[in-house]
Specification:
heterodimer; A: about 210 residues; alpha+beta; 2 domains; five-stranded antiparallel β-sheet; 4 helices; about 35% helix; B: about 190 residues; six-stranded antiparallel β-sheet
Chain lengths: ~210, ~190
């Protein structure tokens, strides 16, 4: 007679255990997914400057620093070994940054402007050259506004130079890097292109005058 | 006390498996970029806001092609969906009309150049074409006439880069006929 209620109690106990197991597993899944989502979103902040740290090692003053080739195991993956790449670092804290290149006709070259995180905020290729030259002035919003004011106040006749107009870009960051990539279409052109990249000028605006290069 | 221990175990196990899942996703290169044409999956930086892609780029320090530079695609399988196998020969054939220049490069499955002394890839300027301007590239471990991209014994992937193109404006219109095919011809 007493065994009957005991048997009836096993049902609720099992249900309770099953409920606890389900809740535990649901909690485990929630924690797993939360940690996964947070870690995926946090990684770009945690490793944010890895690209800039890598490219900074090649930077030189005044001209693009060429990456030693070929890319080794320490280089980032999925790169094109047919590209010769040089890097210029910019720091807009004290002055705008200028890049000046006399384009080699038919030579594919790109100029990509990157934030410290590696995100590109602007890119242009040699097809954007005017009169065979690429002239880009990179500045902060404040420097851009000051430059605009100065331009409005100055005499119009002072802007009749024969030099091609320069492209002015506004950067959200004071620091970053410009990646200059030239395609080596044939292996025999590699040394010539290396030399040509060395003729590109980049640096603070005061060091590289817009009209100084023929 | 038992309840507290259970909570703690669930929390720690969840943290561990969450981080393990993140590591696995990065290892497998999983991302939800949707642009793919035949065996070619978009590998440029135009879908940079996709969180898994952003995380992978941050960890490797990789700089994808920027919008305005061109577009890159990666192939890990042939046109019939079979994983690329160095024991097999492949025919890279079909039009590549969107780029001003293009390059085709063989890379390790981790994305690095091989250290062997074989040709790493072709640029559009190096290709031998027939009298009507078409071309094929043969990928094989054994020497082949024409455009031969030698393979080693190591597993590989192919990187196709189209420089100076406007593909990002017509992603939705990409169709297989305007893209090269990777046809497995025979296996050793």
């Amino acid at each position: 007679m007493r065994s009957s209620p005991q048997k009836n109690d096993l049902g609720p106990m099992r249900r309770e255990r099953l409920l606890i197991a389900c809740l535990t597993f649901t909690g485990f899944l929630c924690v797993t997914l939360s940690i996964h989502i947070v870690s995926i979103l946090a990684l770009p902040h945690y490793f944010g400057d890895r690209a800039m740290a890598y490219w900074s090692t090649f930077a030189t003053d005044g001209h693009p620093g060429l990456r030693t080739d070929p890319p080794t195991g320490t280089a980032p993956p999925f790169e094109d070994p047919a590209l010769l790449q040089g890097v210029c670092l910019y720091d807009l804290a004290s002055a705008p940054f200028r890049i000046h290149a006399t384009i080699d006709p038919g030579q594919f070259t790109s100029f990509a402007f990157h934030r410290p995180s590696g995100d590109a905020f602007y890119a242009v290729t040699d097809r954007a050259a005017q009169q065979g030259k690429i002239d880009i002035l990179l500045m902060t919003q404040q420097q851009f506004d000051e430059d605009e004011e100065t331009s409005e106040e100055s005499d119009d006749t002072s802007h009749t130079s024969a030099a091609p107009p320069e492209l002015r870009l506004v950067s959200e960051d004071e620091r970053g890097f410009v990646l200059i990539s030239a395609l080596v279409a044939r292996p025999s052109e590699r040394e010539r292109i290396k030399t040509w990249i060395g003729t590109i000028e980049c640096g603070k605006v005061n060091d590289i005058a817009h009209d100084s290069i023929p | 006390m038992a309840t507290f221990v259970r909570y703690l175990v669930v929390l720690l196990a969840g943290c561990f498996s969450g981080l393990a899942l993140t590591a696995l996703v990065l290892e497998l290169g999983l991302n939800f970029s949707t642009v793919a044409v035949g065996p070619w999956k978009d590998y440029s930086g135009q879908d940079i806001h996709e969180p898994y892609r952003r995380a992978a780029l941050a960890v490797t320090g990789e700089i994808p092609l920027a919008k305005g530079e061109g577009t890159s695609f990666i192939a890990t399988h042939d046109s019939d969906g079979r994983r690329l196998d160095p024991a097999c020969d492949y025919l890279f054939t079909g039009p590549i009309s969107q780029g001003r220049f293009w390059t085709l490069t063989r890379l390790s499955t981790e994305g690095f150049p091989f250290s062997d002394h074989l040709r790493q890839g072709f640029t559009s300027s190096e290709i031998l074409r027939n009298n009507i301007g078409n071309f094929d590239i043969i990928l094989s471990r054994h020497a082949r006439p024409g455009n031969w991209l030698p393979l080693s014994d190591a597993p590989f992937v192919l990187l196709l880069r189209l420089y100076d193109n406007e593909l990002y404006t017509i992603d939705a219109a990409l169709t297989a006929p305007v893209f090269p095919q990777l046809i497995r011809t025979k296996c050793a």
